[in-house]
């Protein structure tokens, strides 16, 4: 997916969407379906759609959610694999762009630097820097929608390791995987125990000489079928359109059921999850050391492995697990605190991600810079004190896109309401400054704990909560009313739809 023609000069729109990943594309599709007269553009800093799925290129990259619930609600997932490889997800997104005729709406190579809202005009002015030339371009819009996710695309997280400069092999972070990296027959150490590590290890094990997962502490690893037999049968019998609704509902119920069981009966679920691991590893394997976490299930995200591929790699002897702490790197590998040394030709630091709040965009309202941690999320999709602004941030305990779909639906309903009532500006106003505020995301994962302080916060009552609950959000965002005492609507004369602002075209 390349950029739109250079001769395109339109810079004013009803809605500007930041980011052409799964969230931004979802917002664009919902606008096209629900508000065909609304003008919009997507500003994407990279040269392709896909966001995370285009950024990460490490071996075996795949979804860690089932695709019937991770895909869009309006576009059936038709691939036989429910846990899909990265290239299949990219194909799905490219098909979405083609089917919805979104290519002409996407401005590639436009990295948004800042956005300023004027209450007098009822407009956002967005400054974007063009890749290659470094020139800046200004866009204006009635509404701003951020589909930026929460990953920092510029750099992943790597702890400071003593002696790393002495290492004579190759050091790689999965976020910056070299296309020409040859690990055939090599000794590979993957540092980490999260979703990236458990994906990399079975993918590399077939070609590498040996792969070692080096972890400071274990994570919960849950084996699921790569293909959903029920879904594939229903697709054959009913066709993709009718089957998709059934399979999607089934998977949502199953995933929510597992999560709720972990919250209500953590000891039981811990026992069941670890028993599932024991069943797939050799009898002598030390599961207590290597696959028994210190925390309860879903205090951090569960790591999903399709068809138990990680356990198969370990059982075959192609991969192994070491649970220890790193003392320092050496010329030939890594020395551990236990005194053991792991020889390595390649070390992969699958040590986590850095978080980035709203893509590091500087936001200003009427000349006042917005300090994101001072804001409170409204319905987990808008910010207190920030007019005509919405964002999509998916779930941490179920498929990301389920939340994106609900946010986009509610966003379109909000625009419909404003148009019908003649409103031009809407702003969430926190009417209880003494309300306790809490982190927007509450997982104990290291990357969240390191970065969450830079994000907006959630409240503890009313529309200010940010529960990771799909059914609660269905009630609030899909079925609930748009009008709310916490929303302030105003109608300055100079703020009108882009279709009426021909002078800016």
Automatic annotation (TrEMBL):
Cofactor field: FAD
Start and end residues of each stretch annotated as Disordered: 483-505
Keyword terms, alphabetized: FAD, Flavoprotein, Monooxygenase, Oxidoreductase
SUPFAM superfamilies documented for this protein: FAD/NAD(P)-binding domain
Key word Oxidoreductase present: yes
Stated family: Belongs to the FAD-binding monooxygenase family.
Protein name in the entry: NAD(P)/FAD-dependent oxidoreductase
């Amino acid at each position: 997916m390349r950029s739109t023609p250079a001769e395109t000069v339109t810079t004013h729109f009803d809605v500007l969407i930041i980011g052409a990943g799964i969230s931004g594309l979802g917002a664009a599709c919902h606008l096209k379906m629900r508000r065909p007269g609304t003008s919009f553009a997507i500003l994407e800093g990279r040269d392709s759609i896909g966001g995370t799925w285009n950024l990460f290129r490490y071996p075996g990259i795949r979804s860690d959610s089932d695709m019937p619930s991770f895909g869009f609600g309006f576009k059936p997932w038709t691939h036989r694999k429910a846990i899909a490889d990265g290239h299949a997800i990219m194909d799905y997104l490219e098909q979405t762009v083609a089917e919805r005729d979104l290519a002409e709406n996407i401005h590639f190579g436009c990295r948004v630097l800042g956005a300023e809202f004027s209450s007098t005009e009822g407009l956002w002015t967005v400054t974007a820097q063009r890749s290659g030339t470094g020139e800046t371009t200004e866009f204006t819009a009635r509404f701003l929608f951020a589909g930026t996710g929460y990953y920092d695309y510029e750099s992943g997280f790597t702890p400071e390791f003593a002696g790393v400069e002495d290492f004579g092999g190759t050091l790689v972070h999965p976020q910056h995987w070299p296309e020409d990296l040859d690990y055939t027959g090599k000794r590979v150490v993957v540092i980490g125990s999260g979703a990236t590590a458990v994906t990399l290890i079975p993918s590399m094990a077939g070609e590498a000489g040996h792969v070692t997962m080096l972890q400071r502490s274990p994570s919960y690893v849950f084996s699921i079928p790569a293909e959903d037999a029920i879904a594939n049968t229903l697709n054959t019998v009913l066709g993709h359109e009718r089957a998709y609704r059934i399979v999607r509902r089934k998977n949502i119920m199953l995933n929510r059921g597992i999560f709720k069981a972990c919250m209500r009966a953590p000891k039981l679920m811990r026992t069941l999850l670890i028993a599932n691991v024991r069943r797939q590893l050799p009898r002598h394997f030390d599961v207590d050391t290597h696959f028994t976490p210190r925390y309860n299930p879903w205090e951090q995200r569960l790591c999903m492995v399709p068809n138990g591929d990680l356990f198969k790699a370990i059982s075959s002897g192609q991969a192994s697990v070491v649970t220890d702490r790193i003392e320092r790197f050496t010329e030939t590998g890594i020395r551990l605190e236990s005194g053991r040394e792991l020889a390595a030709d390649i070390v992969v630091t699958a040590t986590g991600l850095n978080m980035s709040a709203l893509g590091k965009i500087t936001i200003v309202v009427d000349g006042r810079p917005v300090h994101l941690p001072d804001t409170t999320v409204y319905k987990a999709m808008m910010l207190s004190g920030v007019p005509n602004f919405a964002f999509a941030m998916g779930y941490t305990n179920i498929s990301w896109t389920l939340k994106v779909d609900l946010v986009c639906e509610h966003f379109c309903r909000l625009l419909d309401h404003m148009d019908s009532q003649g409103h031009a500006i809407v702003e969430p106003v926190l009417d209880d400054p003494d309300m306790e505020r809490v982190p927007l995301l509450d997982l104990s994962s290291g990357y969240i704990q390191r970065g969450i302080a830079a994000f907006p916060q959630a409240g503890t009552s009313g529309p200010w909560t940010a529960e990771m609950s799909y059914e609660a959000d269905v009630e609030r965002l899909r079925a609930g009313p748009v009008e709310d005492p916490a929303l302030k609507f105003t109608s300055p004369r100079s703020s009108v739809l882009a279709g009426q602002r021909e002078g800016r075209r």
